[in-house]
Fold:
Amino acid sequence: MRRTSAGRSAATAPHDLVAAARSAAGRLVATDAARGATAALPALRAAARRFPDPFATGGAYRWDGDRLAALAELYEVMGWILFDAGRHGAARWANHRALALARLSGDRWTERLVLLNDSMLMSHLGRPRAALEDAARVPGARRLPALVDSLVLIRRAHAVAALGGEREAVRLVSRAESRFLDGVSADDPPWAWWIDHDEVLGHRGWVMARLGRWDEALPLLHRASTAPGPSYRRLFTAHLLASLVRAGAWREAERLADGLVPGVPAIGSARTLGTLRATTAALLRGDGRPPAALREAAGRLRQALPAAAVRTPGGRKG
Structure:
């Protein structure tokens, strides 16, 4: 999911820090969209060193709103990238920093985006109730604009599907597409530009796959995975392969697995790589009794995938 620096020290003039932090966030987003989250990690680390953490010295409450808001945006982007790069502990920390900064600055839209990002992280970590709690904190007294509302409904649908609520999950994800089709409005925040129809359809297909509704999931995931878009949408391709396998569409799965091999080095999403590893491992174990040709294709794909990073409980590589 995504949207739209060189920084300085804490002594930087406020307007310079604001511009630099927002420029850094923009460059991180551009790198993530073009090359993936792991490719953005070096620039993210540099930005984390370059920009001050106003909480480190207990001085956040003395900062002006513009600087707090700019840093909230930067930490939000960092949280997203860390999540898609598989740094879940660091992503949670960045999300908490972004939320605190957004609240201090009064930036409700950045706060909402962080909550939606954290909802996705909670679903990924197998905590659907926490994901629902995050999503429930997004709406306010006024009705949300269509694009943001569609994203809230998508996050809720994933969590409800994980909890086994098939009818409600289908209702939510169908409503998400309906709200998206209400169209962009002047009330949508600038960060909502990346929420397009292919993004919504990809999530709808993914939710249907969670529920085992293959006739609905497969065409939606196929459309989302073949449409032009940012690097992180390769995740839909990984879920398409997993769905083809689980649906017993052996020949289509074999063609897709072989087609993925040349592009593996360009995949910069730990989520995408993890999904492909899980699918190839299941095929190589013989789960579902796949034909020999598909197992061979899975072997070729597995050989192309980089080894998974081993991490200690503290989140560092072991």
